[in-house]
Amino acid sequence: MPTDQYIYQDRAVVFLDVLGFQEKLKEFQEEAIKYKEDNNAEFFISDAVNEFIKTFKNAVSFLDENNYNYYLFSDNICITIDYYQNHNLLVDILVTINDLFFKFAEKGYFLRGGLDIGKFVDEKAIAVGIPLANAYKLEQNVATYPRIVLSDNYKRILDDFEKAKTLSEKSITSKKYLIKSHCEVNYINIFFNLIDNDNKIEILNSLKNSIDDNLNQNSKAERIAIKYEWLATQFNMFIDEYSTELMYLETDAQATDEELEIIKALKF
Question: What is the pLDDT along the chain (268 residues), one digit of tens a residue?
């Protein structure tokens, strides 16, 4: 085959965007200008943009460790998954996205995105195919809130693999709690990774503070505030679900009665 021909392959494709990043860009620039003026400095420097870039690099490092292909541009991340020989990777990527969500959330940034599956040209520095376009459309038109939406095709194929018994028992169990549905929309349960997590109280507290900060910062911007109000509702729903059901799934880090009371008190 000629070396200048590219092959379409079966891939799952994730498109992630940092919610409200356009406003953050303005803050970064204003801080850099103020720094130069206040310090009579040679360069424009923003501590906030430094922290954001460090968060981004941390996310990239995390993807490298898990051997995912990815592409970064501005505040966007595209991740591709070769699942052809291992269908469990279609569940594993949902767990990975959970981890990414919390890595950003702990720094006050929240991800929104879409996830599709299909034929894709996946080469170094080249990403071409309908799944990326579909994932982008899901992020723009369906996700709306800080959540990552699965395409109907992705959910159907995952269900088909479960029926065909090409998923492990662990993947099937995880899938049950990893995917939430509302009306016709399927999206990732971003709180899934807190199950059996020794640091769940610390993480929940950090997440609540990040949501609170964004609610306060956008108290006069309804279009943005409703996104974080939705997330606060999801936060409360998780605590209710954890207290009544999910905690009993834990084998290593089930909360004590005292810890459970602390978790319940975190609700908005």
Answer: 556 778 888 999 999 998 877 777 888 889 999 988 999 888 899 988 888 888 878 877 878 777 788 888 878 889 999 999 999 999 999 999 998 898 888 888 899 999 999 998 887 777 889 999 999 999 999 999 999 999 999 999 999 999 999 999 999 999 999 999 999 999 999 999 898 898 999 999 999 999 999 999 888 888 889 999 999 999 999 999 999 988 988 887 788 899 999 999 999 9
Report the length, in residues, of the chain: 268
Task: Determine the Cα–Cα distance for residues 25 and 143; give it in Å rounded to an integer.
Answer: 22
Q: How far apart are CA 106 and CA 204, in angstroms?
A: 10
Cβ neighbours, 10 Å, residue 172: 14
What is the number of other CB atoms lying within 10 angstroms of the CB of residue 239? Answer: 22
Do residues 81 and 88 lie in contact, with contact meaning Cβ atoms separated by under 8 Å? no
- Cβ neighbours of residue 197 closer than 8 Å, sequence gap 6 or more: 203, 253
Residue type for position 25: L
H helix runs in the chain, sequence order:
21-39, 47-65, 89-105, 130-138, 152-163, 169-178, 200-217, 222-244, 257-264
Q: Residues with Cβ < 8 Å from 160, sequence gap 6 or more?
A: none
Question: Exposed/middle/buried for 189, CB within 10 Å: 0-12, 13-18, 19+?
Answer: buried
Distances (CA, A) of 89 to 13, 61, 95, 173: 12, 19, 10, 14
